[in-house]
């Protein structure tokens, strides 16, 4: 995801958009979205154990993001972010609350199977029916899902279409 944020910022700079205008955007239920995003960051960066409670909280945080995005459907970029979030939620629900990571891509990026340290991910092979929705797209330092790509393009759209043009 950092790649998409960086692309959006650079593109906004090149097209002379004022990113400060993003700070004045008004959202319905902003705390729902922000608190769910904080949980997502914590779940995806901290080595927390895989317990029933953590799985429920992880899935609920995705649900809160989806609800928040639906409530702000009219904002540029949010439709694509919503589609990506729903794809990710679908594959997570189909995998008992964890995001599958394609083992072949993990090997390509030199991630060991022993690095399955987060409660939010698990390794799969191409025999899984939903591997194509999993994290399998290699980028340097990251493995992304098709849902992540939709979210990323939506973030770029959000930055570009909500950043006001600077006066010259």
Automatic annotation (TrEMBL):
Record key words, sorted: Membrane, Transmembrane, Transmembrane helix
Q: Which Pfam families match?
A: DUF5317
Q: Which residues form a coiled coil?
A: none
Would I find Transmembrane helix among this entry's keywords? yes
Q: Give a yes or no for keyword Plastid in this entry.
A: no
Q: Which residues cross the membrane?
A: 29-49, 55-73, 80-103, 139-161
Name of the protein: DUF5317 domain-containing protein
What is the scientific name of the source organism? Alicyclobacillus dauci
